[in-house]
Amino acid sequence: MTSPPDTDLKRRVLASMRELPAPTRGEALRARAWILGCGVLGALVVFLLEGGGRLPARPPSLTALTSLGSATVVGAGMWFLLTRGRSALGRPTGRLAASALVTAILFIAWRYGVSALFDQTSAWPGRPGFLCLGLSVATGALPLLAALLSARRTVPVSPGVTGAAFGAGAGLGSSWLVDLNCPVSYLPHLLLGHLLPIGILALVGGGAGALLLRLRWLPGSRRCDGPTFPRHPGSRPRSDGRGGAAGATGAGALEPRQNARSSPRLDTPKCL
Amino acid sequence: MGTIDQADQAMSRYACGDETAFDLVYETVAPRLERYLARRVPARSAVEDIVQQTFLQMHAARATFIRGAAVMPWAFAIARRLMIDAGRASWREQPAGFENDLPPPVPAGVMSYEGSSPSSEQAMQAEETHAHLAAAYQRLSSPQREAFDLVKIEGLPYAEAAAVLGTTIMGVKLRVHRVHLALRRALGGGPAPRPARRAARRNTGPLRTAEGS
Q: For A2, which residue in chain B has the nearest alpha carbon?
């Protein structure tokens, strides 16, 4: 039932593609590894500068047990949240939300549960959790930015959700890092200093993702070179070639960019 | 191996830098994209622009294409997003796409005349039925039409259609089901509209009254 493709259109597509260099999978992987590597390195630097290198005042066995367990939970959660699975469109929103929620709760539950076994869940009056909150957010911001930059303008469906998933993943990673040197396992502290940053980074990631990850019209198609999209399909082409469906196909539409500038009422394109 | 599967593999090769694989991707994807967009965008030039831009986006983001993934949902999702960005809300959707792309619904009686031309009465009846269907289709909401088009016309599995539309599989199934009901009603069959059924249950509606009399 499909008709053969238009050869003129194909010629135009190929011509516009020739003008836009695109990295191959290998090149993009290397570039992404660089960006993400820089993000993680920056997070480690921030962590160390903010005093993250102190040894925790906890029994070594408790530290090892909580760190290993939470590393497993966080690793699985980050893999699910930061990768797209087998679909080019990424994972469904519901699964991403559920995995972020379940991983974050498991992370806190594990920390609290293991600490309870060692009787280490008492309150620390001088540590309400704001220090951990700030450190987690500061540590997670750079990997989040790196993840957003590495995937910018490539998410056609729900870029905000994808950004929120990136934020939750970065938040989990940073919370795990901060968890390494935080001796406090008092539940309100864990909720404020270790769980809330995940939510904050997910919110920030959602907002930033909606801006950075969404598709933008690329230069090369006629829409970017002139106002080919009229507000109303039935509108007549103007004599100066500024609009109208028919005008889009005529010479006036192919012409100059100044048309878009001088015609504020039209849907002017936003090119790269 | 089907054409779509070959296109999936061709897209994977293209993502790795095999430029010759693009031809197959284009030949498979472009006609379907044009057909999908033509049902929603009235201006032919705008359809071509969106198709061109979709391929440009696919080209620019080819490195992000996952090996073994399906190319059609990806292409549909990009085209849909570009279409929305281009201001679909300001366009009047026209029934032309529906009339051009779906085979005209033919009453059962006409089918028995295969090989010979149907009588003028049957042709008129077929046209009337077609007009009813087209009108019923136009009355549907845009999300319902989109779900129906992707699943029933473009042949996408429910999961892929859900991914394109950014909704759940159940959501897509529900929309397609509602389209089925609406089209069935337009053909004169199927269950009565919900308000009438509710009224019948309350024993005050026109259906119950008619049965009682």
A: B31
Q: Three-state DSSP class for A221? A: strand
What predicted TM-score, i.e. pTM, was given to this entire model? 0.76
Residues of B in contact with A92 (CB under 8 A): 162-163, 168
What is the pLDDT, as a whole number, of residue B206? 39
Distance CA B65, CA A211 (A): 21
Residue A89: which of B32, B163, B168 has the nearest Cβ? B163
Reduced to 3 states, what is the DSSP secondary structure of residue A219?
A: strand
CB contact under 8 A, B59 and A20: yes
- What tokens does A197 get? 């940053």
Interface mutation vs chain B, best among A11, A16, A17, most B CBs within 10 Å: A17
Number of other residues whose CB lies within 10 A of the CB of residue A108: 21
The Cα–Cα gap between B184 and B140 comes to: 13
Alpha-carbon distance of A222 to A233, in angstroms, equals 17
Output the pLDDT for position A69. Answer: 93
DSSP state of A57: S
